[in-house]
Amino acid sequence: MKAWVIAAALCLLPSLVAAEPAAPMASGTPPVAAQGASTVASPPPTAGVAKPPKPPKPKLICEETKALGSLMTSQVCATQAQWDARRRNDTAEIDRMRDTASSNATGGP
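Now predict its structure.
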């Protein structure tokens, strides 16, 4: 285990030595890049820019449900949007079954 840590440190050592310092030197002059090395422009500082606030987590609404023919209840939790979508899907499915049943009873559409 120690050998792996030492080997990893030795592999990373050249990249750490070649890296430029993050802040300018105390004299106020910017650091000088190594000869033959390319410099990469750093992005402008974002000190005055505030991150946008995170949207609030949707509130979970829990309902007790009982399966048909069972005495056991279970708790189902979902957001209001999920409950609305479930009710829309259930209503659409009931309408589809009603239309299918009525078209079979009359002999077709």
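Residues 3 and 9 are 10 Å apart (CA to CA).
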